[in-house]
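I have been asked to look over a protein record a colleague put together. The record follows directly below this note.
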Amino acid sequence: MNRLILGNCLDTLVRLPDKSIDLLCTDPPYGIGIAKTGKIGSSTFTPKNWDSAIPPKVYFDEMLRVSKRQVIWGGNHFAHYLPPSRCWLVWWKNDGLPCGTFADCELAWTSFAKPAQVFNSRWRGFVRDSKEPRVGHPTQKALDVMKWCVASFSKPGETVLDPFLGSGTTAVACKLLGRNCIGVEQDAEYLDMARERLRRATPANDNRRTK
């Protein structure tokens, strides 16, 4: 079951019961203004203002309330909202070439009492380990990365929530791995991308190794 909702995620979050979601896995806006540029490297996108600021604390309070377990990408931007964590995730995406424009890695805060973990998946320009095409979202996550999160921290048949769905990478990962997904996105253009990606995603067509 995959349910994609158009709207502000806070409206959905406040209606969900406490601990009704098995895993929250999401990538909120970092507040760095990347969406307004309309261009990253050689890729162009529709300029938007959704990344002009990080979400208010109430969004994070609600995300923690409704879910049993959490993975929040960009956690270093939201550390003042979140409790201390032992298990930070690191997505190492450097291809070994010097570059001062893009970060070598991204960090995710988690609620798990486990050692920190690193996942290697190159994601820079044309040098990418995840081969899915870019779909018009400036901060599209690598599918291999989201599959890693979903596979590592949830079980088949469980429900995963992504309240900042974007172009739908979390929903695609859930479909390929046999999880239920609830995704919320306030931008209609992005939600259309997510629906199309989800429509095309079938386990039989997913030939990449799940890490």
